[in-house]
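F.,

This is the one I mentioned.
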C-alpha cells in the first residue's frame, strides 16, 4: 500500500486562546510522488468507465486503483509527457490533451496515438485541443485553440466543416443536444455571445438556493466560470448561482464539484466546502489554505479528489463526511482525549484531556478551556460523571472536582492520589477507587490495601463492587470491609472497569475480555473469540437504552445487554481517528468516542457500511521472462521450468490494504478457493494443458465480488504430444527389450560356457573313471595269463595274449572317447567274453539278444559301462559254479535309453556276497560303484537319467531259478 498522509483540516482559525468557533474537521488523505504519483503537480483528474482514477501531470499520466499508481509517459506511447487535461468518454476511452495538439487515448491497456493507430493521424497546425464533447453517434468532438472543431469518427481525425467559421465554445455548449460535454465546467472571459443576442443573463439568481429546480437545472446543463462567479448556461439564459464575493471567495475559481446538496469550489489559494449549499444553508469551510486547486472530482463512490499545483492529490473518503473530528488542530488543547460527557440540561459537552485540562463546548459551539489539576506529573482528566442539576463530577489523577456548567466554576471535593474511578449511587453517594484504597466520600475510607484498586460500581446506596488487579471484591457501608466476590475465576483476574446494569455486573478485564456476573455466578464470557474488538478493555459505558459500549485498544464493541451478545465493532477502518479508545458517551443517538488521537462524534445508528464488492481487474500475465497484456484467455507454448504468474488488482479507494483475494484454478465455482492478501498468483512450472483461472475479491465488510475468469492454455511441445510420447515410449520399450535381450544373451552364453565347462569336466571325470576301470580289467586278464602258464597251457597263453593285446588296443582307443557305437561295444564285449571263456576253461556260454529297432539307428553309449557287469557275472556268478553256466545279454530301447540286462544262472548275488564276506582277506569290487558314479556324472552334463539295478533271481520271485539279473538303463546318443 502506498504511504498516505492524513491531515486534519478545519474551517476557522482561533480568534483567542480561550474561545473559538467549533468547525467540523475532515480527515484528508494525501498522495504524492513518494506514493507513486508521477508528479507533485497535477492538472486534472478523471474517472474512467472501469473505475480507475487518472491524473494528468507535466511528466505523464498516472492511473490509480486505490493502492498503486501505474504511470505512463512518452516512452509508453504518449505523444508528449506534458498532459494538461483528461477526458473520459462512454466507450471507456481516456483522452489525453497535450500542447502538441496530437490526439491520443488509452483503451484496453494500450495507448493509441498516430504511431500505432492510423485513425489518429492529424495535422494540428500548432493548435492544441481545449475541450472535448461526445456526440450521439459516438463521435468525439474537440475544440482547439483556433476555435476549430476537430472530429474523431473512430476511423479518422479531421477538421469538421462546422468549424470553418462562426464556431466557438458557446456554439458547442449551446447545442448540447448534439454535443455532450466531457467535463464539469468551462472557463470563459465573458458571457456575451455575439451569435446568440437573445440570450438573457441573470447576475442575481432568480431561484432560491434551496429550490430543487435550480439543482436540476445545474446538473442538466453546462456550468461556466467567470472569474469567481458560477453560471448555469443554456441557449436561453445564463443564471448566476454563486457570486464568490458574497461567500468570502475573492480569488478566481479554478474548478468546481457538485456533491449532492454540497458545493466544492477550488481556487488558486484554497478549497472551499459549501456544505448544504443547495439546501439554502450558508456553511463555508475553508480547506487546504495556500494550496493551488487545479481540479475537483467526485467519483462514483462519493469520494472527493482534489488535485493541486505542487502538493499532489488529496482525497476525502465518502464515509468521512458522516464523522466529525476534534483535536488540537481545531479547538482542543491536545489530541489526547481521556474522558467525555455531556450535561443534558445545559447541553454542554465536556472533554477531559491531559495536563489537567477540561475543554467545554456549549450549545453555540463555543470552545473553552479550563485547568483543573495543576499538580505535576500525571494529572489527566480521567472520568466525568453527571451529578446533579448544572454540575458534573470530574476525576483527575490527583483529585475529585465538581464543575458547575452554568457558572463554569470548579470546586475540589477531595484530593486523592492516583485516582482511578468514580461512581455515584442512586441516592448520590460517591465512591472513589484510588491506588490502594476505597473512599466513600464524606463517610469512610478503606485504606492500606495490598492490591491496586482500579474501579468501583455501586449496586445501591449501601453496597458496591470493587475491581482490583487481583480480582473482584464486594463491600457494604455496614461492614466497611472488602470481601472476595463471585467465582474463583474472578478472584484471579486483573479488572479494569465495572458497570452495574439491571442486576448484572459487567466486568471488563485487562486481558481476558468481558465477564457477566449474576447472583455471584458467571453467566457469560465475551472475548475476541466472540468477536470482541480486543480482550484488553479500557472502559465500559452504558447508554441506558440496552447498549453497553466497550472501549478497547482496538476499537469499540457494542453489546446488547439483553441478549448479552456483540452487535458490532467500530474501528478506525470505519472512520475513527484511532483504535486506542479511552471513553465513550452517547447523547440521543450521537456517539462521542474519545481516542488517543482526538475526539470523533457521529450518528451511531447511521455509520456508512460499504458492502458493494470491489471491481477486480486483470493487470498483466507473466510467463517465464515475458510479460503479456491481459485478455480473456492466454495461450502459449510450454516453457520448461517457467513460472506462470497472474497479477490482479481491485479498484478500492477506501482501505485498499484490507482487500482479500480468492483464486481457483480448478474451474469449480463452489470449492477449491484459496484466500490470499497478495494480488500476484504464481503457478511454478505449469504443465501443458487447459486450465480455468478464477479470481474474486472483497473489501472491508463487503461480500465477494463476481469471479473474474480467464482460460489458460499451455500448448505442449512436439515431444510432449501423445504421438511423440508414444514413439518415445515404444523406442524406450524396444531399447529395454534390446538391452534385456543382450543381457539374457550374455547370461545364456555365460551359462552355456559354464555348462560346457562342467560338461567337459564331467567327461574328463568319466574318462578318469573309465581309466580307473582299465587297471582292474588288465589285472584280471594278466591273472588269467598267469593261470594258463601255470597250467602249462603255453599255446593257449600265447593265443590269449594275442587276443588280449587286440582287446587292450581296442580298450585304449575307446577310453579316449566319450561315446562309442553299440556295435563297437558288442564287438569289444564279444572279444572280452571269448578271452574269459579261455580263462575259465569254457565253463560258461553266452548269448547276445538285440532288439530289431536298434538296428535302424546308430546307437552311441559311454564306453566300458557294460563290461564290468559282464565281468562281475562271470567272476562272482558263473566261475564259482561247479557246472557249466549260461549268460544272456539283452539290449533294447526304452524311452530313448538303452536297456541292457545281464542275466546269468550262477550262484546268485546273495550267495556270492556271503562267500566274499567269509574270506579272511576281503576283496572289494569297485566296478559297480564306478558304474553308478559314471551314470551320475553323465546325468550332470547330459540330463539323461541312467539306472543300475541288481536282482537275485532266487529271492526275487523268479521261481526256483538261481543266478543274478543286472539291469541297467544307459543314456545314449541316437543317430539315423
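My design for it:
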Amino acid at each position: 500500500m502506498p504511504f498516505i498522509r492524513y491531515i486534519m483540516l478545519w474551517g476557522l482559525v482561533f480568534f483567542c486562546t480561550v474561545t473559538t468557533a467549533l468547525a467540523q474537521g475532515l480527515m484528508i488523505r494525501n498522495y504524492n510522488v513518494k506514493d507513486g504519483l508521477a508528479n507533485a503537480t497535477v492538472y486534472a483528474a478523471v474517472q474512467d468507465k472501469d473505475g480507475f482514477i487518472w491524473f494528468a501531470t507535466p511528466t505523464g499520466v498516472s492511473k490509480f486503483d486505490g493502492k498503486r499508481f501505474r504511470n505512463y509517459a512518452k516512452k509508453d506511447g504518449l505523444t508528449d509527457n506534458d498532459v494538461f487535461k483528461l477526458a473520459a468518454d462512454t466507450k471507456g476511452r481516456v483522452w489525453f490533451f497535450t500542447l502538441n495538439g496530437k490526439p491520443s487515448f488509452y483503451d484496453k491497456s494500450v495507448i493509441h496515438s498516430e504511431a500505432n493507430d492510423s485513425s489518429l493521424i492529424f495535422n494540428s497546425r500548432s493548435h492544441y485541443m481545449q475541450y472535448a464533447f461526445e456526440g450521439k453517434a459516438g463521435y468525439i468532438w474537440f475544440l482547439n485553440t483556433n476555435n476549430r472543431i476537430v472530429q474523431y469518427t473512430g476511423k479518422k481525425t479531421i477538421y469538421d466543416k462546422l468549424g470553418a467559421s462562426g464556431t466557438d465554445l458557446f456554439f458547442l455548449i449551446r447545442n448540447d443536444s448534439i454535443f455532450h460535454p466531457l467535463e464539469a465546467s468551462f472557463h470563459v472571459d465573458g458571457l456575451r455571445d455575439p451569435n446568440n443576442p437573445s440570450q438573457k443573463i441573470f447576475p442575481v439568481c432568480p431561484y432560491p438556493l434551496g429550490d430543487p429546480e435550480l439543482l436540476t437545472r445545474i446538473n442538466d446543463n453546462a456550468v461556466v466560470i467567470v472569474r469567481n462567479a458560477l453560471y448555469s448556461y443554456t441557449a436561453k439564459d445564463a443564471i448566476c448561482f454563486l457570486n464568490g464575493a458574497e461567500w468570502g471567495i475573492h480569488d478566481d475559481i479554478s474548478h468546481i464539484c457538485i456533491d449532492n446538496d454540497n458545493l466544492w469550489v477550488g481556487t488558486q489559494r484554497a478549497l472551499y466546502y459549501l456544505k448544504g449549499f443547495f439546501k439554502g444553508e450558508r456553511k463555508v469551510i475553508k480547506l487546504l489554505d495556500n494550496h493551488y486547486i487545479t481540479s475537483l472530482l467526485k467519483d462514483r463512490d462519493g469520494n472527493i479528489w482534489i488535485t493541486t499545483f505542487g502538493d499532489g492529490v488529496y482525497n476525502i473518503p465518502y464515509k468521512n463526511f458522516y464523522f466529525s473530528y476534534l483535536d488540537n488542530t481545531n479547538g482542543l488543547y491536545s489530541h489526547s482525549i481521556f474522558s467525555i460527557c455531556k450535561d443534558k440540561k445545559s447541553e454542554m459537552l465536556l472533554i477531559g484531556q491531559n495536563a489537567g485540562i477540561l475543554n467545554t463546548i456549549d450549545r453555540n459551539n463555543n470552545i473553552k478551556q479550563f485547568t483543573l489539576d495543576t499538580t505535576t506529573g500525571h494529572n489527566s482528566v480521567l472520568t466525568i460523571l453527571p451529578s446533579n442539576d448544572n454540575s458534573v463530577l470530574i476525576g483527575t489523577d490527583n483529585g475529585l472536582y465538581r464543575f458547575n456548567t452554568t457558572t463554569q466554576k470548579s470546586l475540589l471535593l477531595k484530593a486523592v492520589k492516583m485516582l482511578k474511578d468514580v461512581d455515584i449511587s442512586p441516592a448520590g453517594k460517591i465512591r472513589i477507587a484510588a491506588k490502594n484504597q476505597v473512599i466513600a466520600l464524606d463517610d469512610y475510607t478503606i485504606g492500606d490495601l495490598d492490591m491496586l484498586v482500579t474501579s468501583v460500581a455501586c449496586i445501591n446506596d449501601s453496597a458496591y463492587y470493587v475491581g482490583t488487579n487481583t480480582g473482584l471484591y464486594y463491600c457494604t457501608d455496614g461492614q466497611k470491609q472488602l470481601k472476595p466476590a463471585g467465582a474463583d475465576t474472578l478472584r484471579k483476574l486483573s479488572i479494569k472497569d465495572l458497570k452495574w446494569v439491571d442486576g448484572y455486573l459487567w466486568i471488563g478485564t485487562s486481558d481476558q475480555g468481558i465477564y457477566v456476573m449474576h447472583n455471584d455466578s458467571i453467566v457469560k464470557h465475551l472475548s475476541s473469540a466472540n468477536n470482541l474488538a480486543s480482550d484488553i478493555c479500557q472502559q465500559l459505558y452504558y447508554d441506558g437504552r440496552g447498549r453497553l459500549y466497550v472501549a478497547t485498544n482496538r476499537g469499540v464493541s457494542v453489546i446488547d445487554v439483553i441478549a448479552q451478545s456483540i452487535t458490532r465493532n467500530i474501528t478506525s477502518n470505519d472512520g475513527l481517528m484511532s483504535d486506542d479508545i479511552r471513553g465513550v458517551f452517547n447523547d440521543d443517538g450521537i456517539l462521542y468516542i474519545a481516542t488517543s488521537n482526538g475526539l470523533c462524534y457521529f450518528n451511531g445508528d447511521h455509520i456508512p457500511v460499504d458492502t458493494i464488492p470491489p471491481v477486480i481487474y486483470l493487470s498483466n500475465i507473466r510467463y517465464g521472462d515475458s510479460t503479456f497484456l491481459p485478455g480473456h484467455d492466454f495461450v502459449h507454448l510450454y516453457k520448461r521450468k517457467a513460472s506462470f504468474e497472474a497479477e490482479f488488482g481491485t479498484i478500492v479507494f477506501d482501505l485498499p490494504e484490507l482487500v482479500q483475494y480468492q483464486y481457483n484454478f480448478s474451474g469449480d465455482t463452489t470449492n477449491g478457493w484459496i484466500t490470499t492478501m497478495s494480488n500476484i498468483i504464481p503457478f511454478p512450472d505449469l504443465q501443458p494443458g487447459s486450465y480455468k483461472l478464477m479470481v474474486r475479491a472483497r473489501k472491508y465488510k463487503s461480500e465477494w465480488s463476481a469471479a473474474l475468469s480467464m482460460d489458460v492454455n499451455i500448448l505442449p511441445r512436439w515431444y510432449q504430444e501423445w504421438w511423440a510420447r508414444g514413439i518415445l515410449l515404444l523406442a524406450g520399450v524396444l531399447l529395454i527389450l534390446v538391452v534385456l535381450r543382450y543381457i539374457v544373451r550374455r547370461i545364456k552364453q555365460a551359462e552355456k560356457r559354464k555348462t560346457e565347462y562342467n560338461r567337459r569336466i564331467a567327461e574328463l571325470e568319466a574318462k578318469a573313471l573309465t581309466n580307473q576301470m582299465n587297471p582292474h580289467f588288465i589285472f584280471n586278464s594278466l591273472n588269467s595269463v598267469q593261470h594258463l602258464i601255470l597250467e602249462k597251457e603255453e599255446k593257449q597263453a600265447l593265443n590269449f595274449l594275442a587276443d588280449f593285446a587286440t582287446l587292450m588296443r581296442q580298450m585304449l582307443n575307446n577310453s579316449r572317447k566319450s561315446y562309442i557305437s553299440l556295435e563297437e561295444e558288442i564287438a569289444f564285449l564279444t572279444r572280452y567274453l571269448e578271452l574269459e571263456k579261455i580263462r575259465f576253461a569254457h565253463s560258461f556260454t553266452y548269448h547276445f539278444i538285440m532288439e530289431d529297432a536298434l538296428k535302424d539307428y546308430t546307437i552311441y553309449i559311454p564306453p566300458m559301462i557294460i563290461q564290468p557287469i559282464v565281468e562281475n557275472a562271470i567272476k562272482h556268478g558263473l566261475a564259482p559254479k561247479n557246472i557249466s553256466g549260461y549268460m544272456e545279454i539283452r539290449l533294447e530301447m526304452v524311452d530313448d535309453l538303452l536297456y541292457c540286462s545281464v542275466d546269468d544262472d550262477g550262484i546268485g548275488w546273495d550267495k556270492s556276497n556271503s562267500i566274499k564276506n567269509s574270506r579272511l582277506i576281503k576283496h572289494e569290487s569297485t566296478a559297480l560303484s564306478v558304474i553308478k558314479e559314471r551314470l551320475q556324472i553323465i546325468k550332470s552334463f547330459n540330463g539323461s537319467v541312467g539306472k543300475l539295478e541288481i536282482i537275485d533271481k532266487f529271492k526275487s520271485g523268479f521261481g526256483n531259478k538261481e543266478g543274478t539279473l543286472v539291469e541297467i538303463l544307459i543314456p545314449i546318443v541316437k543317430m539315423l
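The chain has a mean pLDDT of 87.

Talk soon.
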